């Protein structure tokens, strides 16, 4: 297998050449399959697996990092605005709530497709629930149940964040440390949950008061 030689010896022979060339290229491999299991079953070459499995980065599925949904949706909206020359301003709070309550079996690609579909139905302004597909709009009873559960979690989460902010005099960096989350995650949750932070007490990541 010629790829193994490139990975192991960093040499290759260009088509039509009479000698070998060297390369310092770095190979990035991505998959949605379990290569450990595939290697054990014999459906993926073991020698290739150990050559590409040098630095391993696992990206959790979207259902396990739903705090990224608002940022991803914003990115897709900006892209489709450019491509379709529209001026969609964002998601309504109801539409975002439905997106946050979805399980996302199709991962980020499913979110992208839903935003693209919404652009067909939404010429301008905000994307509302009327622009979302049936599996998200509440016509499925299970979606209602998931949204009610999500709202209950949001109430508890908002309460915990408010308590941490108050105990730390609304220093968001200190509150993030107390909650055990990254500061950017806390900032997004504050915005998403509509938690009010006194302007006089807001501090950036360096602990300097904003004016």
Automatic annotation (TrEMBL):
PANTHER family associated with the record: ALGINATE BIOSYNTHESIS TRANSCRIPTIONAL REGULATORY PROTEIN ALGB, TRANSCRIPTIONAL REGULATORY PROTEIN
UniProt keyword terms in alphabetical order: ATP-binding, Nucleotide-binding, Transcription, Transcription regulation
Source organism of the structure: candidate division TA06 bacterium ADurb.Bin417
One of the GO biological process terms: regulation of DNA-templated transcription
Residues making up the signal peptide according to the UniProt record: none
Name this protein carries in UniProt: Transcriptional regulatory protein ZraR
GO MF annotation list: ATP binding; sequence-specific DNA binding
Residues spanning the membrane: none
Keyword Nucleotide-binding: yes
Pfam family, one: HTH_8
Domain Sigma-54 factor interaction: 1-120
């Amino acid at each position: 297998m010629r790829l193994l030689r490139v990975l192991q010896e960093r040499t290759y022979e260009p088509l039509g050449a009479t000698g070998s060339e060297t390369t310092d290229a770095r190979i990035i491999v991505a998959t949605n399959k379990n290569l450990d299991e595939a290697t054990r079953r014999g459906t993926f070459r073991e020698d290739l697996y150990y050559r590409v499995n040098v630095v391993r980065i696992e990206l959790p599925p979207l259902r396990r990092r739903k705090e990224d949904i608002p940022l991803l949706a914003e990115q897709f909206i900006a892209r489709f605005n450019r491509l379709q020359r529209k001026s969609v301003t964002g998601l309504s709070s109801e539409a975002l709530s439905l997106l946050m309550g979805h399980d996302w079996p199709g991962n980020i690609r499913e979110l992208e497709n839903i935003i693209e579909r919404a652009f067909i139905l939404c010429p301008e302004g905000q994307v509302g629930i009327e622009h979302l597909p049936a599996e998200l709009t509440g016509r499925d009873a299970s979606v209602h149940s998931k949204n009610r559960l999500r709202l209950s979690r949001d109430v508890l989460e908002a309460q915990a964040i408010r308590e941490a902010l108050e105990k730390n005099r609304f220093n968001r960096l200190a509150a993030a440390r107390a909650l055990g989350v990254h500061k950017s995650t806390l900032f997004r949750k504050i915005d998403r949950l509509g938690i009010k932070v006194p302007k006089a007490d807001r501090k950036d990541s360096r602990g300097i008061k904003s004016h």
